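Data card: per-record layout.
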Amino acid sequence: MRAATPAATGAVRLPFWRMAHRRALVAVSAVQLAAGLGGQVVALRRRRAYDTPFMGGSPDAVGRDSLVLGTALSAPVTMLIAQAWGTARLAGGPDERARAVLLALSTVMVPGYLLERLCRARLTPGGADAVETPLVATGLAGAVAMALLARPGQPAAVRP
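The structure for this 160-residue chain is written out next.
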């Protein structure tokens, strides 16, 4: 008796490179999410309000602002929740919607890190901080990598 082929059973086998690419996106997103969560904790403890050229928060309102506007060291909680959802969905298998969510989030995060005054300061030699600089560097690098890995046409979430 012959073994059933994946095509005969209706199962879908992804080529290794597609699975590896999706796994890379999941791993990068998880690391970036960890940096965002760490940034959230540090910003709340140190009262680091967001401060961009367009608007800024108050140290007294960091907790409230962190929900929708973010902090100096992290994206808003709403974005972190969406990122956790997208990462979990993509970890479970190819998912076009999850890929699109991670692309949208990372595309917003990259300029967010670059516009944030404290993040720019932490990335300079004179403004380095033992705790904040690694969070900012990891978060920014992770957001850039996510944006590249989640681009349309990349094999991360493409269905065969």
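Known properties of this structure: The mean pLDDT is 89. Residues 16-46 form the longest helix (31 residues).

See the next section for split statistics.
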